[in-house]
Amino acid sequence: MTSTLQPVRRVCAAALALMIALTGLSITPSVARAEGVAPPLDAGSSYTVSVDVHDAGNPSEPSMSAGMLAKNAEIDVDGSGRARITLHFVPAQIMGLDVHASDLGVYEEGSQSNFIEGVSFKLGEDNSAICQFVLPYVPNDGLYRVEMRSDIMNRDALLYVKWPTLKKTGGLGDTLAGLVESAKKYSANDYTEDSFGKLKAAIADADAVLANPDSTPEQFQASIDAVNNAVQGLNAAAKSPFEAGRTYYVDVTDQDPTGSRALDLEARFDVDEAGTIKATLRFNPYSDFLGAYQVSAATLLDREGEVAANNAIEQHDNGGATWTFDLPYFASTGLYKAKVTATSASPDKIHTLAFDWSTIRTTADFRKLAAAIEKASGLAAPAYTASSFAVLSEALARAKDVAADTSHSQTTVNDALAALTEAMDKLSIAENAGSGNTVNLGISGFNAPFSDESAPGKPWAGSRVYFGKDDQGKPISWRVLQTSKDGVLLNSEHTVTGQAWNTDMSIPASELFWNTATLRTYLNDEWFNKTFDALSKEAVKTTEVKSLSLADASKEVAPATQDKVFALSIQDYRNKAYGFVSNESRAAKEISLLTRTTDESASFMTMVLIVLPDGDLESGFNTMMPYTPNLGVQPGITLDPSKVLLTTPASAAAPSGIQKPLATEDNAWKLTLINDDWKFDASCPRVDGEKISVEYAANASPSGRMSRSAALDQDDRVVSALVVRGSDWRTGTPVGYGTVGKVSGESGSVSFELPADFNKETDKLYLFAERIGEGAESNIATMPVEVSVPDAEEPPAPEPNDPSTPGGDAPGNSNASDKPVPSNPGNAGTSGSSPAPSGGQGQAAGSTDAAKVVAAKTDSRAAAQAIPKTGDAVFPAAAFAGIAGAAAALSLIAVRAYRRKLES
């Protein structure tokens, strides 16, 4: 067991070390401070001394912040004995990040909350800095508790003044003389008139102090400060390249590591006729392990540290912001200081903006578009589904057209880039191709995830389904991990952020498991209620969720829970049958994902297993303290298959009229959920020609289960038809589906055509009322009602005595059955014939035999129509008339004979 747990303990230790490094958390008990004795500091003297930064929790060890402090410092003592120390800070790299000091706080003696006053901190354009303050006390061990402030974060540390290295120099006069000698080497031609003028004035004052034998230490120190400040304030002379009345675009970066990810690459400069340069910069919303980074305030500073004119910021609903200001001066280096306030960062933090003047341009920036075109052009069609690659091909062609014309506006370029980027983002790898149809009964369209681990680097592939809505009201996409008749295991692709695994500090470490996690409470209460409406909630099954041991997955370490929503376990994320075959298949990109699995073997604190942003599970940094804020979780739920009537492609609109299902490679599905509170009935089906007409009654129950967004309103309902072959609507094969009419009121009728291949012997017709969800939002339907399709209706046969029937036995009609048939003068040339008058056939109705007579009559008419007409060349007109008359007479004789047989 020891060998099994050692790697896990190492993982925990590494994770804890990272947290300590980032937060300044002190776990290690204090040890003895550095030894030494503070030497006397003579009034009016100057010294050099070595300095360092040690860890606040372990004074004998250097701090991670030590790289920002130069190792040599100066101490100048004035006439009254006050010792002023001068520290020098330089940019450094800490844990791979570029870091620079932004300020220093010095605690009062014995205090860990109150700072001394009078600390001077001057930050240069290259992010170096000079810090000066009067030593508040002189401890023997040389340790001063300070707060190191940087562009990354603030943390407590110990400034270590190494008294044994203290060396006396020539005094304040020598220090000032050396500064003046160096300052006189600067050339007026290289700097702005204003900044160089201040340096000249400081040098002149210093020369006067040096020349006066009665100068006091305070005067020497004031001159030293003035020369240092003037040197720091020098600004290189440069001429603005911007012309009045024009617009320019320039690349800009934020040298703050987090700010660099939020600031848009391109800055815009609008120059008015007076030459005033208005800059426009854009911040984008960004999230990392510390949470959302959203800029709320930003002010550009001029050379004197004052706010630039017309400084303003406009925040956007998506968390981004637009920042505008008048450029106060033109810095040849392109470096400007700004104060930026953002979430998950210190307020008014000093940032350095770097404008790259070599990128000045007057046309739209095509570089991002060109890079996207190059990337898209290198993608191979066989690697993706045909439909998604077709969208990409169209967007790529448009992007190439835009890139070929440099006169396009930046808006047009950005639109083409956005469309191409979206098409690439939505590319579906070939393994994502589905095996369903354009309509599927229940969950039959879902297929198992792609689980071949021999294909490295593949993102997750398989069926997806849209269900519920996020905070912006957009349908949430879920991965289908596993299907069965009892339930469908779904895993959200939407990351829930802003929650720690546990925030209840009263829970003992030994009891920190999924059953006590505050994240579990949040997901099953607040998040569940805002994500799903009432009907959708009923479609989510309660799942028994087990807390399995990290060391032995066959053992449970805590009581199982009954949850609607849950975090996946580390075992789930390792399950290849769920489609998690690679880091890419698990990656959430910008944020680590919490699991419900804990490392119960940790000796000092229960740790939570996480999935790193790149999807890695085995790096050694896959544990985190349960109280760590602002991580993410992609929840799991179990969908109840019995609540699903149909699935259709999420990208397709509902078909109009009954359409035959077609095979599709689409594998992102839209649900049609059953609401059994809604009532629908269909009756009185009639077949009229090629159409069937059905009367319906549709009433929604007032039970209140549905939210307003899913209510079956009178104005948004349709009647839909479903044709199923071989069995019923749950187990058969769908052969037709579509909307066939709009529901108007609580009752009405619809008329529609059945499929040409509809077979009463094998097919069943179902009707139901349906609310079609917008986009990928779920449809809501009543329980389907089977409609019995009747035989096609024959036109009713006329009664023989019906006066309205031509040739019937009405008074005055010459073809009554008990009267002799007169000869037709028009047929006198046909000897012995007894032709019937025009239209003179009687007709029996009301029985199968009568129907046969109608059929015979119809056949005789068809035969007559086949005989050539009078104008044809085959027969003379007279001969044709005789044949037609004889045929009609024979038909009438047959009808009368059959009637007498029936009467007898």
TrEMBL record:
Key words, A-Z: Membrane, Signal, Transmembrane, Transmembrane helix
Region span, Disordered: 790-859
Transmembrane segments: 873-895
DUF6273 domain location: 509-584
InterPro entries reported in the protein's UniProt record: DUF6273
Keyword match Transmembrane: yes
Domain of life: Bacteria
Extent of the signal sequence: 1-34
Low complexity composition bias: residue spans: 824-848
Descriptive protein name: DUF6273 domain-containing protein
Native species: Paraeggerthella hongkongensis
